[in-house]
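FORM 7B - TANDEM STRUCTURE REPORT

SECTION 1: FIRST PROTEIN
SEQUENCE AND TOKENS:
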Amino acid sequence: MKKLSFIILIALTACLFSCSKSSNTPATTTVTPTPTPPVTPPVTPPATSADGDVVGKLVVGYQGWFSAKGDGSPSNSWNHQNIEIWPDTREYTNTYSGSPFNQNGGVTQPPFTGNMGNGSPAVMFSSYDQSTVNTHFLWMQQNGIDCVALQRFGSELSNATLKAQRDGMAAKVRTAAEATGRKFYIMYDISGWTSFQTQIKTDWTSYMSTLTSSSAYAMQNGKPVVCVWGPGFSSRPGNVTSWTDVLAWFKAQGCYVIVGAPGNFVSDAANQSVYTTANMIMPWEVGNNTNFQNFQSQNANNLSYCNSFGIDYQADIYPGYAFFNSDATKPKNEIPRAHGDFMWSQFAAAKSASVKSVYISMFDEINEATAIFKCAEDATMSPAGEYFLTLDADGTHVSSDFYLRLTNNGQKMMKGTIPYTATNPTSFQ
């Protein structure tokens, strides 16, 4: 009996020792993280919006960032003179001479006081000049452009001079839009704006929201339109949390919110909650050099995605692209315009995919040669002895207003006032 009791005592002691050791030694088990469930569309998605100031309309992006010394602007200096394609300045009321061209990686040349290829003085416009903005909006009115997305670069707003420049441009655009019956809205670009999550809210409430009292401020579904460009881009500040917060905040302010998204937003699983927060999605296509079939398929897929969530869709269309004068490692005429055929193929692709809302990149972007406003037709209309892309680069001469007229035809086809055609109907002259 004593022997049995001793054996039992030994067993109990061993058990207690074993249990005590186990409680102080963490288990080495592998934990598989729970994957984030995909965002699924509602069984019955809400209806997309009826036509308004942006839905069913043609919108152009407007940089408004070219200034000149002596133009009365807060900066009173030459800004954004890394010009790739030279503007046709014949119709401007006021022009300015002495532009220091920044070429091939930002090397600033001395102020240029030379002549054009035809012998006339080489002059530039200033976006800050009200007469310039009036001229631009007149061209928009004449060519069926419904609405303007005024770019507001948040990274500049911490600089008092640049903020005053941007504030002044907003006031000038308002004046010109009211005078010509065009609509406009603010498009915030968050590139380089690390503090955008807080500062964008302050900027809107302190000044930009006051623009919505204008009869020309774009309204959609009875709400003022605002766009935030950059969410979803890995090269832009922020993440899914900060991006979603900003979009949701604008919606809480009673705004109709557009997000300027990457072209692959449909397959961007990590940021789906960002895109589904928006009222409208505009995927950025500049640099996407593809063909009609791919543009058509992409637009159809994007539209199907947006429809499944009850989100409005806006196709992005651009004429061509080049950036050689800013970066000499880039090729000249990188994405050729093909005398309008490239741009028209995008209109045709969007129409055949049943898209009804269009954004044009851009109206006045002469730095990247995506401008559709009046530009130099040939070397006689750009500075002599300097390289600038001209509209005849592919060997076909077109008038300086060709891309404005092409855009006019494009918006007519999108709205059904002229028949669908896969071939560009715009005359060269």
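SECTION 2: SECOND PROTEIN
SEQUENCE AND TOKENS:
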Amino acid sequence: MTDQSAIDMAVKRLALALDALDAAVERRREGDRSEEALADQVQALGLDRARLAAALDGETSRSRRLEGTNREIAERLDAAIASIQSVLDAQE
């Protein structure tokens, strides 16, 4: 093997190694981009969860107020019905 052919083979091996290194770097970049995208999605989901939790708390509070109002109205209706019934009974 001549010095020139040894140099040519070494250059080819170096070129192959550089190609493999470039491919590994690109795979790493893609992986990093994927991780960043996932982190962004997790953050967005966390914000959505917080927003939905606040909305749920508000709706739960509203529901409790409506239930209280409903009970109060039912009690008033019962009292009105009883009052009307007593007036009707007194007239008979």
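SECTION 3: OBSERVATIONS ON SECOND PROTEIN
The radius of gyration is 39 Å.
The first helix runs from residue 3 to 91.

SECTION 4: SIGNATURE
Preparer initials: ____
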